[in-house]
Amino acid sequence: xxxxxxxxxxxxxxxxxxxxxxxxVMDNMEIGFxxxxxxxxxFMQRRASGxxxxxxxxxxxxxxxxxxxxRDNKIISKTxxxxxxxxxxxxxxxENLNDIPRPSHADYTSFIKYGNDMDMNGxxxxxxxxxxxxxxxGGIAKQILEEKNIKISSRIKNIGGIEDKNxxxxxxxxxxxxxxxxxxxxxxxxxxxxEIRNLLEEVKKDGDxxxxxxxxxxxxxxxxxxxxxxxxxxxxxxxxxYGIPAVRAVSFGLGLDAMKMKGSQHNDQFEIKNGxxxxxxxxxxxxxxxxxxxxxxxxxxxxxxxxSISICQKSFSIKEKKEKILQIKGRHDPCLALRTPPIGESIxxxxxxxxxxx
Length: 358
What we know:
By secondary structure, the chain is of the alpha+beta class. The chain has 8 helices and 18 strands.
């Protein structure tokens, strides 16, 4: 079971949702870089639970403790290690799930693979809680990239079919995206925000859940990153994306809308602007042939509805081999997509830093 990734920048995530600690090891770091801890905490809090009525009521401070490689906020070793303490977990909410698997969770597939030996309280290593140390690493990577004038931002593009306003993918409004990043529902269109809020209230009242789309933007991305075929830039982004619980699809630029277009509509035609080669549109999302072309990188992460819902569902007893009715207890997000923008930004930041460390 691999919980590590990266070729030049090696990242290892450890721990689980209901263990005392979880954390991250980052290897091949830039010695001397000073981490802005306030900015890192703000980044982490965008992902944290318990900050909104539309997220799980499990409250975690996600306080970072660097136990190796950082002194006085400065990186002093090629390898750094940080931990986050889990403070508010309730393992008793999961006691019956060792025998009765939750639909659309990894309970059953984990049992098939590992039997009862895997600690699956809170979802174990399959839990979205592990995106906290992932974002810890991503937040640091994002700060390093900012010093190289690479900007990364994101938004919620769609919740339950309600779509935020269209953006010119060739010229994404990075300043506006930064302004909405701390909002409870980070969308640009205030009217759509109200519609999403009403939908979430309804879904929450019904004990159900809903999915959504996070859209990620990167500006000033160097040209020439990635290689053809299996080492493509898209493949590297997708590799990390599918390691995130609940991701169902990844698409670049216009994504699936491309299949409804003619080539004359979808092709990104060239222009020379201030002596620089640009494309008039950015339907490809800044990547062609698996290689970045200097246009903004844009990709969508499509998330399924939170599988933990309070509505009764059909399941079965592993021991008895009999069908059972399961009602899930505990505290869960009616829409986990709301907390995913910093995760998407971390995916892009860690991919870029790994490639730039070559």
